Amino acid sequence: MWWKIYFWIFGVLSVIGVLALIKFIPWNFADILIIVSSVLTVLALYSYVYQKTILTQQFWKYFFLFTVITSGLDILYNFTTLQNLYTLPEFLISKAFKDLTVVDYLIGLAITLPAYYANYKLAYLTPGSHAKSPKLVTKSKKKGVKKRK
User: Fold this and answer.
1) 74: how many CB neighbours lie within 10 A of its CB?
2) What is the separation of C-alpha 41 from the centre of its chain, rounded to a whole number of angstroms?
3) Is the pLDDT assigned to residue 128 strictly greater than 70?
4) pLDDT value at position 105?
5) pLDDT confidence of residue 94
6) Can you state the angle between helices 2-20 and 102-124, rounded to 10 degrees?
């Protein structure tokens, strides 16, 4: 139940975030990458929460690695002296997220971490084990209904 509530909250926040990017048209490469990544993250979360197979497990592995690497590099670049040492080309810097503070990044990361976890589980666990909780009731051929361990 928590996952479904989180999915809808995250989905609404993602739509609001994408709509906020409209005022930054024309978009550069980084902005388009953020939009595509947001849509795919919501799609992965939907697939995990509602146990729907959308795209392949191999795709979700690559996407998970992509999100972890890009998030890590983003944090590294924006919150270390690396930004002073090396200036990225303009097309790699999102116009919308140029002036975010540390608190803004941390709040965004805290909101997104469960979605990254769902993407991880979708990518690296066996198919069909999506959002199952250990407390779910399952049927057994021999004993009727029993609780999973």
Assistant:
1) 15
2) 4
3) no
4) 79
5) 66
6) 130
Residue with tokens 């592995």: 61
Give residue 39's domain range: 2-147
Total domains present in the chain:
1
Burial of 80 (0-12, 13-18, 19+ CB in 10 A): exposed
Q: Are 119 and 41 in contact (CB under 8 A)?
A: yes
Q: Which residues partner with 138 through β-bridges?
A: 146
Give a three-class secondary structure readout of 51-88.
CCCCCCHHHHHHHHHHHHHHHHHHHHHHCCCHHHHCCC
The string of pLDDT tens digits covering residues 50-94 is: 988 888 889 999 999 999 988 888 777 777 766 666 666 666 666
Which amino acid type is present at position 85?
A: L
Across the chain, mean pLDDT equals: 77
Q: CA 46, 36, 113: angle at the middle one, nearest 5?
A: 55
Distance between CA atoms of 58 and 55, rounded to whole angstroms?
A: 8
Among 3, 21, 15, residue whose Cα is nearest residue 98: 21
Give the SS3 label for residue 119. Answer: helix
* pLDDT, mean of residues 117-141: 63
Burial of 3 (0-12, 13-18, 19+ CB in 10 A): middle
Angle at 34 between CA 119 and CA 72, to 5 degrees: 60
